Amino acid sequence: MSATDWTSEEQTVARTAFELGKQRSITALISTLQEQSSTLDTPESVWKLHDHLSTERYLYEGRAEFDEGNVLFVLADMIKQRLIALDDLQGLDQTKVSKVKAMSMF
Predict the structure, then answer these.
(1) How many Cα atoms sit within 13 Å of 36 on the Cβ side?
(2) Stated pTM of the model
(3) Are 52 and 68 contacting, i.e. CB atoms less than 8 angstroms apart?
(4) What is the pLDDT of residue 3?
(5) pLDDT tens digits, one per residue of 42-78
(6) How far is CA 40 from the centre of its chain?
(7) Which residues are CB-neighbours of 99 under 8 A, at least 6 positions away?
(8) 13, 1 in Cβ contact below 8 A?
(9) Helix intervals (H) in the chain
(10) Cβ atoms of residues 72 and 103 within 8 Å
(11) How many whole angstroms separate alpha carbon 72 and alpha carbon 13?
C-alpha cells in the first residue's frame, strides 16, 4: 500500500499501534534478559543469552522504521507475537484490519 492509500487518521492509528508494539517488545525483552541473566553460570549460558539477544535485535531492527507499504505485515506480526491487539487498530479502514487479521493467522 502506498502513502496515498492511508488517511492521516489511519496513519496516526497505525503509527501509534506500531510504536506501542515496539515498546512492548523492548519491555518484554528487558524482562526476559533480567530473568535469564540471573541464572548465568556457565560460558554456554552466556553465549546462549548472547544468541538470544542477537536474534531479538535483528527482529527489533527489522520493524524499526514505520513504512506504510509494509506496515500491515509488521502489525500482523506484532499481533501474532501478542505485542498489540486488533483493538489497537481501531480507526483503520475495515479492509486493512481484515488484511492484518488474516495475515496474523499464518
Answers:
(1) 16
(2) 0.84
(3) no
(4) 55
(5) 999 999 999 999 999 998 888 778 888 889 999 999 9
(6) 27
(7) 72, 76
(8) no
(9) 8-37, 43-62, 71-80, 94-104
(10) yes
(11) 12
